[in-house]
């Protein structure tokens, strides 16, 4: 099954380090970040899970829940969590799915035979409260994920869902944003963007970040 942006994230029931999880019910009205790992006790993923735990408050401010996945069983997860806590000087505070039967891995197309016929690739999905997939990134095994980028994308998605804007390259909170080309009514533009805008080109109009 190939998932694309805008698809509904498949629902599932699966065991985890924090008990059985029904995914859509667990998400509730929150945003979600689902990220997969090829196996427990892998070095790059150990650092990623530690970093994720340290970012708990950052995700919470964005109404986002985080859930990891590995194909190993719960018992292995619990041992791995101890290693993560010890080596990363934190406490894992989110569930790790135990996808030993590959049920979730198959739903999310995480088994790539050219990478491994048994272990998942290192993908990350950002899912909105309507359960739509809004971001998919797959990383090589040798490169740790950039969680600051994931937070930046969530910020952008939440901002652009609320206003008629898009965010330019390398945008950070507080930077100027782009008025979407489809908005052409000048009266409505003045209403939505009382601070005005800079038109570099008719299709490229920059305005202070609203909100």
TrEMBL record:
UniProt cross-references to Pfam families, sorted A to Z: 1-cysPrx_C, AhpC-TSA
InterPro entries xrefs: AhpC/TSA, Peroxiredoxin, Peroxiredoxin_AhpC-typ, Peroxiredoxin_C, PRX_1cys, Thioredoxin-like_sf, Thioredoxin_domain
Enzyme Commission numbers on file: 1.11.1.26
Molecular-function annotations in GO: thioredoxin-dependent peroxiredoxin activity
Keyword vocabulary terms for this entry: Antioxidant, Oxidoreductase, Peroxidase, Redox-active center
Enzyme class: oxidoreductase
Domain Thioredoxin: 3-159
Catalytic reactions on record: a hydroperoxide + NADH + H(+) = an alcohol + NAD(+) + H2O
Record-linked PANTHER family: ALKYL HYDROPEROXIDE REDUCTASE C, THIOREDOXIN PEROXIDASE
Similarity annotation: Belongs to the peroxiredoxin family. AhpC/Prx1 subfamily. Belongs to the peroxiredoxin family. Prx6 subfamily.
Subunit structure: Homodimer; disulfide-linked, upon oxidation. 5 homodimers assemble to form a ring-like decamer.
Name of this protein: Alkyl hydroperoxide reductase C
Species whose genome carries this gene: Vogesella facilis
Taxonomic classification: Bacteria, Pseudomonadati, Pseudomonadota, Betaproteobacteria, Neisseriales
């Amino acid at each position: 099954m190939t998932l694309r942006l805008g698809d509904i994230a498949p629902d599932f029931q699966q065991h985890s380090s924090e008990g059985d999880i029904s995914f859509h019910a667990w998400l509730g009205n929150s945003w979600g970040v689902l990220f997969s790992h090829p196996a427990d006790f892998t070095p790059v993923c150990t650092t990623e899970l530690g970093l994720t735990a340290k970012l708990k408050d950052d995700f919470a401010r964005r109404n986002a829940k985080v859930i990891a996945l590995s194909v190993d069983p719960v018992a292995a997860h619990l041992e791995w969590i101890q290693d993560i806590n010890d080596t990363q000087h934190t406490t894992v505070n989110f569930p790790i799915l135990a996808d030993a039967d590959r049920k979730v891995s198959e739903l999310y197309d995480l088994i790539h035979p050219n990478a491994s016929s048994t272990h998942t690739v290192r993908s990350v999905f950002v899912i909105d409260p309507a359960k739509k997939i809004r971001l998919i990134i797959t990383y090589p095994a040798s490169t740790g994920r950039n969680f600051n980028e994931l937070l930046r994308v969530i910020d952008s998605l939440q901002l652009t869902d609320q206003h008629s804007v898009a965010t330019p390259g390398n945008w950070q909170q507080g930077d100027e944003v782009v008025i979407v080309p489809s908005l052409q009514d000048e009266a409505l533009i003045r209403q939505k963007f009382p601070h005005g805008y800079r038109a570099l080109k008719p299709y490229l109009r920059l305005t202070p970040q609203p909100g």
